[in-house]
Amino acid sequence: MKQTSTVGKSNKTVLVLLILGLSTIIFPLYMTVVIAFKQPSEMTNSISGILSLPKVWSLQNFREAMEVTDFWNSLKNSLLISGLTVGLSILIHSLMGYTLGRNKSNKFYNFVYLFIVSGMFVPFAILMMPLAKQTAEMGLANWFGVILLYVVFYMPMNIMLYSGYLTNIPLALEEAARVDGASTWLTYWKIIFPIMKPMHATVAVITALAVWNDVMTPLIIMAGSSENTLPLAQLNFQSQFGTNYNLAFASYLLSLIPILVFYLICQKQILNGVVNGAVK
Amino acid sequence: MKRKGLRSLALAVGLTSLAPAVWGCASTSDGKIEVEIVQYKPEAANYFKTVEDAFNASHDDIHLTISSPNDAMAILKTRFIREDYPDIIGIGGDINYSYFVDADILADISGYEGMQNVNEGYLEIAEALELVPTEGTYILPYAANAAGILYNREMFEEHGWQIPETWDEMLALCDEISAEGILPFYFGFKDTWTCLAPWNAMAVELAPADTTKQVNKGQTTFTKEYGELAEKYMALLPYGPDDPFAYNYNDACTAFARGESAMYPIGSYAAPQILSVNPDLKMDSFVMPASDEKESRTLNSGIDLGFCVTEACENKEAAYEVLNFLYQDDTLQKYIDAQTSVPCKKGSFTLPAILDGMSEFIASGNMTDYQDHYYPSEMSVDALLQTFLIEQDKDAFLKNFDTSWQRYNRDIIRMVQDYEAAHGSAE
Amino acid sequence: MTKHENERKRTFLLITIPILALFICFNTIPLIRGAMYSFTNSRGFGSHDWVGLRNYIDLFSDARVGKSYLFTIKLAIVTTIVVNVLSLILALGLNSKIRAKGFFRGAYFLPNILGALVVGYIFNYFFTYIVPALADMTGMQGLSSSILSSPNKAWIGVMIVCAWQAIAMNTIIYISGLQTVPEDVYEAGGLDGATGWKQFKHLTFPLIIPFFSINMVLCVKNFLMVFDQIIALTKGGPAQSTESISYLIYNNGMSGGQFGFQSANAVVFFIVIVVISVAQMKFSSSKEEQL
What we know:
Number of domains of chain C: 1
Strand content of chain B: 5-15%
Number of helices of chain C: 12
Distance between the termini of chain C: 31 Å
Low-confidence stretches of chain B: 1-27
Largest sheet of chain B: 7 strands, mixed
Largest interface: A-C, 101 and 97 residues
Order of helices and strands of chain B: HEHEHEHHEEHHEHHHHEHEEHHEHEHHH
Order of helices and strands of chain C: HHHHHHHHHHHH
CATH class of chain C: Mainly Alpha
Helix content of chain B: 40-55%
Structural class of chain B: alpha/beta
Low-confidence stretches of chain C: none
Radius of gyration of chain B: 22 Å
CATH topology of chain C: MetI-like fold
CATH architecture of chain C: Orthogonal Bundle
Distance between the termini of chain B: 22 Å
Number of strands of chain B: 11
Number of helices of chain B: 18
Mean pLDDT of chain C: 87
Oligomer: heterotrimer
């Protein structure tokens, strides 16, 4: 009885703190929304001016932004690239993370682990030129090449995440299956892969977000093709000598929605602490 | 000799490359010749879209594609490395152009007849941009920009202020404006590149146009040539906002558009951004006076956009046909109206009203190229200038300028000196 | 048993080889090809000459490069600490039994999805106009001018924005770590009277150490390679005080004509981060074993 009351009290404190912290997010978001609805002629440098509500709430900026970015087509490309990258990442990286995570005592696998993880630290600038050349030589200067590169780029981080997660999954689970005569391959897909669901969701969110916002890879790999992703299309709003912030902000708000929905779906999965049940 | 060897090397690489994406001037399935332009001014994308449509509507034999990507330089460089050349590239007359000429990427288009219509001043500017003198011409100058001082015309008329023609008049005007409680200048020095605008505008009068070339030949130093310039630049600072390094280009454009300052030292390219904030603003421009001689004033103007045909373009005639179309008077006029720029073609054009105060310089061809078109971008002269303006240490700045110059231009200096040794100082 | 062992070994090898091959093809080989440029004076296109070790010798005498290393390392250390402390607290908060959990989790995730242009604009505005105005109202002299215009203080602005954006991701990783802590651990702990800080220190934290070390490695790596926030916020200024290493490599190597030299910089930088991170991982795995 006593314990429950202290829990209730601390939860209230937590709630208050969380609400306070939220102001650091609400404020920038408010500015983004307000600017997205304003006209360029409503932009000022004075604080009251920038915080004021737009004179007219019109969807004109959004309509125009969708036109400039060829929204539906760019969205389709972005969804295609992000979706396939996430799918492939979950399949390939979890498998590799499992293999490397379960063999940490083996010198060879430990080396492979460090070798791949160190790939995370390669500055992208040094890869740009050779990759642009290599993908063109291999006929991969297209969206498929971009996906392939993403699968490689995010491999180090995801493998690290998966093999980190594995340390908390008892070996006993696999051994039980093995006694029943199941092969390692089957045991993985039947038992380990489903258990790692919260990690899949985490990896999905992190990878999807990185891919969704990335400009550089499609810029240099797909340069010269007429296909655009959303971030590429959004570059149209800015140049050194003039940026239409109103259209740009409207466009960013639009492209924020799909990824936010995706996150909200995934975070439910992150919360499914499957391991807990399984251990018992 | 060296060039020829390189060219055959490039050819060999091109032949052995498996790249399926070599586009060239290949014919499409419907028998049309494909011409592709990549141009580097994304702000002019709409204009080029209409040009593309108009061209394709009037030509049955050639199909034109124009792309106006953001960060076009990164795109061009990555495409060059995979031997995937557009037929025509639209770039500015700056150090990248110099590098492209040096790398034998661009074709000599001195045989193109449209060259005769180019304003000689801009041809000379293009010529001067070559790292070492060459025989050919590699760019068709299209439009130029001009930098000086933009001013709020209504404010000037209201107070009866006169356009200054000498440095002293300029300072006197600033004092007069301050006395009225108005800020003379707005600066957006948080964006380092804007530090170059007043610098360039004064440099054309105070330093020789070929300063950098003289330094490369070892004939002078920046400490010698830029001393007065640096001092005068510092003298302008008190007439700007208290903390100019807090504001970026966009802030400064907004502030000037809202009448928070009487003048704004920036190029004509800023006009669309300013007018987007305040479409009713009446503004004009004048040439920045930097010395006490009225006659020594010269307009800071350089090639903002020019078209180069690449060496790899297979069908030069088709490319020239595209250039002809772009260079028609009415096509060019539309560009000038949209981008508030100066035509590089001879003939009568209607200049944007914002350039009224500069028109006599443009008409008489009294123009000098931007000094910064000769600065290698990796030296970040804009950042050096910003540091100088913050720390206000002229001697340290100039000394740093000289040592950095030698450091960043080592290979070019060696090339120039080899050339000099081979050709003698015939100039 | 041995048959099973062999089957297991073979499966692991069959998984590893193709994936490793893919990785080498699109990471290792381009890296080696890129590193070759570090021995040339290439501008990134056109012809180039071999210059031997000149770029590497230059690198160690280049004041600008040295300054960028100092700035980047300072930024990485401070931001890593700030981000990990805050996101661990946030993860504990979001993982506790509170109302509107889904809403809070969604809201705190937002900073991560706002694009660089938006973040740059808003924080520029915030530091340039709003903070000084607030400082004037409250009479705080030190903040009455924009911190982004001061060469000594601009890095703090960069730090704040980096932390603001990074906290969301680290929190997610911590939350998924907290999910692996079984309820019965707390129940057992509750019997021993462990609550609050004690419970965290002795029960929760040891169990999420793998996630802590992942976050540390990711943070250090991300902030050492900081690029987007620099472009959005300061572009290396004022007075070149916030030029990060990645910024220099990209700006001078890709946009500028220093491709060969910056490739050398990238190679050295790569080695530096690998050494730091391997040391970090070794350290934290030894900690894991202790517990």
